[in-house]
Backbone:
């Protein structure tokens, strides 16, 4: 087995070795912006943007009390920002996906991502009883 990092004097525990290994295993996804002009080089502008009318999602998870809470806040922020990128109303998306999640096969969970949801479900989203009420 070839060990290119060790051959250069970098031990597996070295932070540089870990960073290079991370980048090497994710090279294709890290380079997607090179082939798709619609993909930004970074998402800094999205991280700095406020979450609009969703004040319960605190910026950067600063109000999360635990590490797990911060992780969940990050997931929700990511979904909201992705919805914004695809011109999807986050409320409509979340209501629809939360209703579909129980019957949706786990092996096809990627189909519920905002991009694919917009292609397949956005024309006829599931609604909640609260939809009829003014929000």
Residues:
């Amino acid at each position: 087995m070839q060990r290119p990092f060790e051959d250069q004097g970098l031990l597996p525990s070295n932070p540089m070795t870990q960073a290079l290994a991370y980048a090497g295993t994710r090279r294709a996804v890290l380079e997607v912006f090179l082939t798709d002009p619609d993909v930004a080089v970074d998402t800094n502008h999205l991280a700095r943007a406020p979450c609009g009318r969703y004040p319960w999602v605190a910026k950067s998870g600063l109000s999360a009390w635990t590490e797990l809470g911060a992780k969940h806040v990050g997931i929700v922020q990511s979904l909201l920002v992705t919805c914004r990128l695809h011109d999807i109303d986050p409320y409509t998306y979340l209501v629809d996906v939360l209703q579909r999640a129980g019957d949706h096969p786990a092996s096809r969970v990627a189909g519920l991502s905002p991009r694919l949801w917009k292609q397949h479900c956005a024309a006829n989203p599931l609604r909640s009883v609260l939809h009829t009420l003014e929000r």
Summary: Residues 1-39 form one domain.
